[in-house]
Amino acid sequence: MSNITAVSDATFASEVLASPIPVLVDYWADWCAPCRQLTPVIEELAGQFAGQVKFVSVDANENTAVTTAHDIRNLPTVHLFVNGELQDALVGSVTKMKLRQALEAVV
User: In the CATH scheme, what is the code of domain 4-93?
Assistant: First the structure.
């Protein structure tokens, strides 16, 4: 996950909410099969949108404060933040096309 930064409860605000560029947040867990299927798609898009969008991941097992604060009830969940505000939320298995459309809407 070279183009994707792992964030935690402690770093979420500085990495996501204070980011000067849009941020895609991938909430995932190691036991979640759809999460594992989505990871290569997000990695590919991270390369394509490098410099325009920051890509971060949140391990839902280890970062319960963030997942609770953002009402994450299903995995995978992808959030798009712009200027610290939630702009879009995609829950469950999502296609590359749907993710790309969401990203293009914020850049």
Answer: 3.40.30.10
Strand partners, 23: 54, 81
The pTM of the full predicted model, rounded to 2 decimals, is: 0.96
Tell me which of 7, 23, 24, 35 is the catalytic residue. 35
Half-sphere exposure for 79 (CA within 13 Å, toward CB): 24
In the chain, where the domains are located: 4-93
Q: Which of 1, 6, 29, 32 is catalytic?
A: 32
| Cα 47 to the center of its chain, rounded Å | 14
What would the pLDDT profile of 29-57 be if each residue is shown by its tens digit?
Answer: 999 999 999 999 999 999 999 999 999 99
